[in-house]
Amino acid sequence: MSSQPYYWTDPMKGEFEVEIESILEANGHCYVRINEQVSKPAGGGQAGDKGVLIIEKKEYGFIDTILLDENTVFVMKNSPSRKGKALLKLDMSWRRAMMTNHTAEHIFVGSMKKKYPELKLGWIWVDGVHGTVVLEGKVIPLEEILDTETEVNRLIHDEIGVTTIVVQAAEVDESVRAREGVTSKNDAIRLVNVGKFDSSACSGIHVTNTREIRAFKITDVKAQEGNTHIEFVTGEIAVANLVEIYNIALTRKYSYPYEIEQLGAILDKSKTLQLSYEEAVEKILQLMKEGPNKVQLDTVTFWYEYLPGFEISTLRHLIKELKLQEPSVTLFLTTGKKTNIVLWTKGMPKDAAFYIIDIVENLGGRGGGSADAYTGGFTDVENPQELFLMIVERVRKKILE
Ligand SMILES: [Zn+2]
Questions:
Q1: What is the pLDDT of residues 128-150, one digit of tens each?
Q2: What is the structure's pLDDT at 1?
Q3: Which helix (H) or strand (E) holds 93?
Q4: What fold is seen in the domain 96-250?
Q5: CA 129 to centroid of ligand 1, rounded, Å
Q6: Nearest 5°: CA angle at 107, between 134 and 240?
Q7: Cβ–Cβ contacts within 10 Å for residue 249, how many?
Q8: What fold, for 279-400?
Q9: Ligand 1 centre and the CA of 126: distance in Å?
Q10: pTM of the predicted structure, to 2 decimals
Q11: Distance CA 95, CA 150 (A)
Q12: 62 CA → ligand 1 middle, Å
């Protein structure tokens, strides 16, 4: 590049007198070339500037800036009325967000590279809304990424100066992050330094102090073919995002009701309930199609059901409503946060506990009961259905003893 683009030294200037050199219409768009290097073209993983050209008080918007044969070209929907002098007004909120997103990307990637030096920076994209980074060569655990998010926010809070300097490629050592081939392809290299924390070769636009980033928020993390794909936002978009998510929780706090700190537990519970609900629907369908699981063991009727998602109190209530045969043994197992088992007897020679207490204790559970009812429970059961079948088999043998 013959001279340095204006946005390298003063990225906060948003208005310029420019000279329109040519206007070309193609593919439903209009391409307008200007003489000055004042609008940042798309490239190096960063979007281009947006804004308007003003000619005789009429505004012509452009949706992107691109570089064509070293010239700055605006991509416009409507063709300006003529060539020559025009006033350029850049969309500064778009540019500022690009600056904060891009500088945050430097800090985040720099921080990840300190933890995992073998990581390679893959595809990146930063625009005036959000940023995307693909870190190649490792699937990084979410906790690790969120720890790095905290570190980025700490560096933002520390108000670190961000400086740029153009140096000879030969002066660039290994402490500088640079894409492969960058130092061999160019004579002069522009270094972007975030205090002493990170130094990288870059031709993009950056804030001058980390405080301008205000906030950094990871919004998505995905593992893709051994790489880690990360999405993030910064500045007022990050703040708006956090406020929105917080308020989704807050507006339900009083009607639910729950405490905000319990949100994680609420979501866990909701997942358990959802799974139990799906199992319960399956159970109801099975009961409708095949009827209850009842077998005759000599004179004794043995009824056993796997009932996911039921509360133990609901089962106790249910059993009072049921007209049980005599003699009979009824065994229900429920799942939820705990796995509970209930056994009722009617007209049997022994107490309810006799038929099940040893079985439950042998399988790691515990419980107790009265003459005709036994209640037991298990914690951390991985496969309650398998447990249930095991209990059914053993109770069946016990009844036949
Ligand atoms: Zn940069």
A1: 999 999 999 999 999 999 999 99
A2: 43
A3: helix 92-115
A4: Threonyl-tRNA Synthetase; Chain A, domain 2 (3.30.980)
A5: 16
A6: 85
A7: 14
A8: Diaminopimelate Epimerase; Chain A, domain 1 (3.10.310)
A9: 10
A10: 0.78
A11: 25
A12: 23
- Give the single-character DSSP code of 260: G
CA 257 – ligand 1 centroid, Å: 46
CATH ID of 6-90, from 3.40.50.970, 2.40.30.130, 2.60.40.10, 3.40.50.1240? 2.40.30.130
Q: Say which amino acid occupies 81.
A: S
Strand arrangement of the beta sheet that strand 120-126 belongs to: 120-126, 131-136, 227-234, 216-224
- For the chain, give percent helix, strand, coil, nearest 5: 35, 35, 30
Q: How is residue 45 written in tokens?
A: 């993983």
Asked whether the predicted pLDDT for residue 61 surpasses 60, the reply is yes
The span from the CA of 258 to the CA of 66, in Å, is 51
Please determine whether the domains at 96-250 and 279-400 fall in the same fold group of CATH: no
Looking at residue 330, its pLDDT comes to 95
Q: What is the pLDDT of residue 287?
A: 86
Q: What is the CA radius of gyration of the chain?
A: 34
Query: How many whole angstroms from 132 Cα to the centroid of ligand 1?
Result: 14
Percent of the chain with pLDDT over 70: 99
CA 46 to ligand 1 centroid distance, Å: 9
Give me the pLDDT at residue 173, please.
81
Domain ranges of the chain: 6-90, 96-250, 279-400
Region 304-312 average pLDDT: 86
